[in-house]
Amino acid sequence: MLxxxxxxxxxxxxxxxxxxxxxxxxxxxxxRTESAVELRFDVARSPTLPEPLRERxxxxxxxxxxxxxxxxxxxxxxxDQGRNREDARERLVEVIRAAQVVPxxxxxxxxxxxxxxxxxxxxxxxxxxxxxxxxxxGLE
Length: 140
What we know:
The protein has 140 residues and is an alpha+beta fold. It has a 3-stranded antiparallel β-sheet with strand order 3-4-5, with helices on one face. It has 3 helices and 5 strands. It has a single domain, classed as Double Stranded RNA Binding Domain, CATH 3.30.160. The radius of gyration is 27 Å and the shape is elongated. The N and C termini lie far apart (82 Å). The model has no long low-confidence stretch (mean pLDDT 89).
């Protein structure tokens, strides 16, 4: 079980781990061991996730989310497989916890009179500046 919060935990059966060779330091040993971890979690078809959370996860613009709703996290920060595995799981927990926060609805407000006047004054000032840049006839 991967615990996300007090009310949500993902069963191991929903997580798919694949081990691959990592690049980076390690000498000849790195060419023989598969220390990098690719963790896959199917957000779209997970029976554990509540529907509002699933919608927020799928709506995020995350490059790690594939077109068919699978979240793919690659961990190759460390030299050994166990630490990379833990790193991938921690990052998955962070992504899901971030999606648990319900964004506040934006309340539409009208601009104040002072802000309208400041905007118009700025426009007039820029217009005057541009007017100064134009060539005046007869001054050539």
